[in-house]
Every structure is written in structure tokens, then in C-alpha cells.
Here is the input.
Amino acid sequence: MKQSGINRSETFEALIVEQDEHGRFVSRIGRRRFDELPEHGLLIKVNYSGLNYKDALSASGHKGITRKYPHTPGIDAAGVVVHSDTDRFRNGDEVIVTGYDLGMNTSGGFATYICVPPDWTVRKPDNLTLLECMSIGTSGFTAASAIYEFIKHGTNPCESKVLVSGASGAVGSMAVAMLSKAGYKVTASTGKPEATEFLRRIGASEIIGREDLNDTSGKGLLPVRWHAALDTVGGNTLSTVLLSTAEHGIVANCGMIASSKLEVPVFPFILRAVRLIGIAAAETPMERRLELWNLISNTLKPDCLDEMIRIVPLHDVPSALSAMINGSLQGKVVIKISA
Ligand SMILES: NC(=O)c1ccc[n+]([C@@H]2O[C@H](COP(=O)([O-])OP(=O)(O)OC[C@H]3O[C@@H](n4cnc5c(N)ncnc54)[C@H](OP(=O)(O)O)[C@@H]3O)[C@@H](O)[C@H]2O)c1
Here is the structure.
């Protein structure tokens, strides 16, 4: 860090989560010293970050995400290298970091600087801006990971209807827009009637209510409604989705907004050969990561990306985190950190 001209006792702006005297987790904007950052090979000045559900969990003291506080969340960051210990990156390179341990137990992207291993770092694709990279971020990367699996499975865009649950959220809305761009017919499930117009604009051809994915009949199979699905909700929603999937269909689950439990009859698997796969974006190996960013930048980037995001300053992040926990956000929140 010495070569970067930065003194380790200098400070930079960051969102800091800590416990108050009552043990409650509170978020505030404050300053952190460079010597509080971990000593990894790349120091990056962050231009943009993005809001993800994991950040909301980290900011509310979820010990499965973050063990030690005070902490700066932010699992996504895009910015410029200001110091590099490796020949693989030079000062001035524009880069993206999503997932791995960033923002979990490593100081994250809700700050002017992050320090990360080069192995976590992806060079910004030429045909995306840093703002576009963070508009997509982990949410879009997760949606693209599912679409990659659908394509690999042989799900044909011209003939296939695909369901997205939690459709107005960050992952859900990216999935709706990317699937529609790839040519699929998209059914969007939402609990927000007011999101109908938004979902149609970004590419949904059918909108269904959240309660429509909460079957309690106890049946072992339900009438077929789609060939593939991306479920962000878990629990009985995922079960209902599986029971309604066509023969040889595929269901990807990435989330557990409603529940982390899954109780489902085996009939979709043994009678319809439905495949259930998991998406773990943070753990994606680097080779696949590069392939996915390539797919996103060349094929899947939504044409309506500008309409799907809301750019906020770091000061607005605490209220956006609360809105995320309440499930009231629509689309993606991008955080402008520095110019
Ligand atoms: N595995 C991975 O790699 C990965 C990556 C990213 C995110 N995730 C997970 O994916 C999930 C979604 O993340 P996100 O960033 O999209 O969050 P988000 O922006 O907060 O969206 C979640 C959406 O779920 C719906 N929802 C909220 N409460 C619900 C409830 N009680 N029952 C059913 N639906 C509800 C809402 O959409 P509607 O109102 O439209 O229904 C909400 O907008 C989270 O569990 C997150 O941890 C996983």
C-alpha cells in the first residue's frame, strides 16, 4: 500500500455496522482507516456498489453471514485498481469484484476502498461500464447463472415458458429481463400488484400473484405450467414450482426469502424427470465467472437496464437495507460511492 502513496493511518468513507448499547445492529456512515482493511494484493477505489439481500442480512447481524463487527458490508464492488502486488493487474485497471468473501467477513463495497485478493477480481468487460457492471452485479450474475444452466439443459427459448418467483426483487427483475432478452416467454410471480406495469415493461408476458405459488392441496403433482423456473423464495413456493414443472423441465433455486426449508413429494422427480439445481453465485469458479460475464455483456444485458435501477448515495444505504428486509424494494439499488 506504501507504493500507492496512501498512508495506512489515513481514513476513507464507509458504511459501518456495529452494535449499540442495547445490542441492536445499527448502520451509520463513518470513516475507516486503511490499516483496518485486510492485507491482500489489490487495493481498489470503488466507484459503484449494489445492494443484495446478503448485505441486508450482514447489516442486521446475521451471524451466518458476518461474524465480527464493526463491519462494512457490500458483496459487490466495481472500481479502479490503485495498488497492485501482481503483474496481472496494473494501477488504473477497471475491475469488478462480486461474491467470494467480500462484504461477509472481508470489508466490503459500501466504502471508498476495498482490498482483495487478485484471484477474486474480474477485469471489466469492454462493452460494459462500471455502472452497468454494478447494475447487474451479483443479482444479474445469479440470474445469468440460472439461464446458463437452462441453456445447458437444452431448454429451447422459442418453445419454453419460464417462471421467475420474487420477480420484482433484484435477482427476480434481472432474471425477467435477461430471460426475455434471450427469447424465453416469462411468467413473473410477484406479491406487489403495483409492480405489474414494471414487470411487463422489462419483459414479462404473464404476471401471477405470489399466492398462486402456495399450493396447499397436498397433491403429488399439479398441472404443468412452465418448462423451467428460477425460484428466489424457497419453502412452499419452491415446492409448488416443482410440482407445476413440465416433464424433463429444470428448476433453479437461489434463495430463501420465505423459508430455507423444502418439503416436496418426489413425484416431479420420478414421474416427470424434473431437475432441481442450486445456484451459489459467490462460489462460482473463475473460469465460469469469466464465461458468464462474457454471456452477460454480449447477450443477456437487459436493454432496459437504466429503467431497472435506482442510483443512491452511500448515505441512503441504511434506509435501503431496511426496505430490502421488508421486501418492499422494486428492481435494483445501485450505490454511487465515488466519482
Ligand atoms: N444463491 C445465490 O447465489 C444468490 C445470489 C443472490 C441472491 N440470492 C438470494 O436470492 C433471494 C433474493 O435476493 P434479492 O437480492 O433479489 O432480494 P430482494 O431484492 O429483496 O427481492 C426479494 C423479493 O422476494 C419477494 N418476497 C419478499 N418477501 C417474500 C415472502 N415473504 N414470500 C415470498 N416472496 C417474497 C419480493 O418480490 P415480489 O414482491 O415480486 O414477490 C421481493 O422483492 C435472497 O434469498 C438472496 O439471499 C442468492
